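Dear Dr. H.,

I hope your travels went smoothly. While you were away I took the liberty of generating a structure for the chain from your last submission, since the lab meeting agenda had it listed for discussion. I wanted you to have the full record in hand beforehand rather than looking at slides cold. The sequence, exactly as received, is reproduced here:
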Amino acid sequence: MTQTSVRAHPTSSSGPSGPSRRGATASRRGILQLLGAAALWPAAPALATGDPQRIRWTDLIPNGLPYGEIVGRGFVDAEEDVWIPEFDANGSALNTDLDGAYIELAGYMIPLELTADGVTEFVLVPYVGACIHTPPPPPNQLVFASSAVPWPQRNLWDAVLVTGNMQARMMRTDLAQVGYTLETTYIEDFKR
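The corresponding predicted structure, in token form, is as follows:
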């Protein structure tokens, strides 16, 4: 956070004891107005400082909610030969403790935006083939990630470790509804 200093300037109406009381009041009023405006400004994501918090996919589920309770039975679409999961409200429950956290999470990349230099937007999924060969996991198990630095188009079946600032926020992509967004600061191959 940038620190701004405010300094009173003497005015022509200064008396022998320094600036007039009127000038000091205006400065206080201005400071109070600035503070009031700052309180209404939307909170910015936490800046990437220090070491990221290493999280697991189960950490995306709110505390006390077992993974088994986020996926319903679903049904088999015999015509398409796929299993269609049904998610209850638990599948959309987000861990708001991660909102604004600087994290790192391993997963698999499903590209959404490609350039000649590589992938710039993707959905990070917990297992290989999710959303491609199988129906998507619940929203609280999907992370939309964007990167200013493209990730080279290598083998997209390999796991990556993604670091960045996370927001707990539902959004719809062309692929699925996701529960989290991540502004990446670093992507690397995941090594166990």
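Two observations you may find useful: The longest strand covers residues 102-115. Confidence is low (pLDDT under 50) at residues 1-28, 30-47.

With kind regards,
E. W.
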